[in-house]
Write a structure and sequence with these properties.
The chain has about 400 residues and is an alpha/beta fold. The chain has 3 domains: about 230 residues, Rossmann fold (3-Layer(aba) Sandwich); about 100 residues, no CATH class; about 60 residues. The protein has 17 helices and 5 strands. It has a 5-stranded parallel sheet, with helices on both faces. α8 links the parallel β3 and β4. α3 crosses α4.
């Protein structure tokens, strides 16, 4: 029989937010032999026994590969047996709701922590049973009563507790910006009150509310900030990623026998430069070039000939990505019907984004959606149907 406290706890968690949930399983991790410098810094931080920096903020712009780094580090922490809990925020996961709500963070973390620290499980579950609506209370109250208090009591009673890490990725994905700031303030103040064997790693874009939160707690001297800038030499990592992608194309593309001594070093230099440290851009390039339905050499040549719209002294890397998308759209034969279909892809929830459902909404004949999107696989995910029975075909287009 499941005790009441555990039942209340599990009813309030976001299942898809775990590092090893089904939602996270296919998510990208860092490519082999890349991001070694930042990974070493993260590992050194969590290994350090005497640091007072119990909170680490990893930040950077969209597309720079933050979540890939965090997932890779989370796996390292699992192997090192130091990952106490994780929560991967997301506004887009319709199939596992709650990942954009701060009210789901604490119960999800608490559930994992009592498995990492079984010594406190009884105290935590009793606290939940004494106050069955505790997860409707403030984050400060939940932290004090379900994490900090039980850990502090166990520590002072002489229980052997190994230091554990809590990872919260994508805080900027929380729906309410005020919740983003409050999360930072609550964790920082809780760690300042009592000494517990727990550290927190938070990753996000440097959004205004998050910056303000870390600015307010900076005087506590318990935070460390790591920005994913040029200090970590992203160009070198992107070069390894791109070169590995071309190796894969030369081995496995249907036209591989025509790709000897391809591409020229100058083409790789161009792609690295145009990626501007943004892994999103580099990954989009390689998906575009490696299309099984096109000639890689022609696609690479087209990319190298493309230019962003407009010209300024400081061109955003996303302007370069726009140029790639513009070229992808330039090959679409029926642009009006394709743009109409894309409107439904953007507006409809993921559960309604199967090719067949999109065809019904757009009043298109069966099979038309795949045909219209055939030249857009580099920017729109269209799932394969080979080997699937008709009743299960039509996963979401993204």
């Amino acid at each position: 029989m499941i005790r009441i406290g555990l039942s209340i706890l599990t009813d309030n968690i976001a299942l898809g937010a775990f590092h090893d949930s089904a939602d996270q399983h296919a998510s990208a991790k860092c490519h082999e032999n890349t991001r070694e410098a930042i990974m070493k810094d993260l590992q050194d931080w969590i290994r350090s026994a005497d640091t007072k920096e119990s909170i680490l903020w990893l930040y950077g712009p969209a597309g720079c590969g933050k979540s890939s780094i965090v997932r890779t580090f989370a796996q390292w922490c699992i192997d090192a047996k130091v990952l106490a809990a994780s929560f991967f925020c997301s506004r887009e996961s319709e199939l596992s709701p709650g990942r954009d709500k701060s009210r789901k963070i604490m119960p999800t973390i608490v559930y994992q922590i009592i498995q990492y620290f079984p010594q406190i499980a009884e105290d935590v579950l009793r606290a939940v049973e004494r106050d069955p609506v505790i997860f409707s209370r403030s984050m400060d109250t939940q932290l004090d009563n379900l994490i900090m208090g039980p850990l502090h009591n166990a520590k002072t009673s002489g229980a052997g507790l190994n230091c554990g890490l809590v990872i919260i990725d994508g805080v900027d994905e929380l729906h309410d910006p005020r919740e983003q700031k409050q999360l930072i303030l609550s964790i920082s103040l809780a760690l300042q009150k009592v000494s517990v064997p727990l550290r927190f790693m938070i990753s996000s874009r440097p959004e205004r509310e998050i910056r303000e939160g870390f600015k307010e707690v900076s005087q506590l001297s318990i935070t460390r900030q790591i920005g994913l800038g040029n200090g970590y030499k992203p160009d070198e990592d992107i070069r390894r990623f791109v070169e590995s992608g071309f190796d894969e194309i030369r081995k496995n593309h249907p036209t591989a026998d025509s790709l000897d001594n391809w591409p020229h070093d100058s083409a790789i230099d161009y792609l690295v430069k145009k990626s501007s440290g943004q892994f999103l851009y580099a990954a989009s390039l390689m998906r575009f070039i490696s299309s099984q339905d096109h000639l890689p050499a022609e696609r690479l040549q087209a990319i190298c000939a493309s230019r962003p719209h407009g010209s300024t002294d400081q061109v955003s890397p996303f302007t370069e990505l726009d140029a790639l998308y513009a070229h992808a759209f330039s090959s679409v034969k029926n642009i009006e019907e394709t743009l109409r279909l894309l409107q439904f892809i953007i507006l409809l929830p993921p559960s309604l984004k199967s090719p067949r459902t999109l065809e019904e909404f757009a009043l298109l004949p069966r099979g038309k959606a795949r045909g219209l999107l055939m030249d857009l696989h580099s920017i729109v995910y269209v799932p394969e149907v080979n080997g699937l029975p008709p009743e299960t075909r039509g996963s979401k287009c993204e």
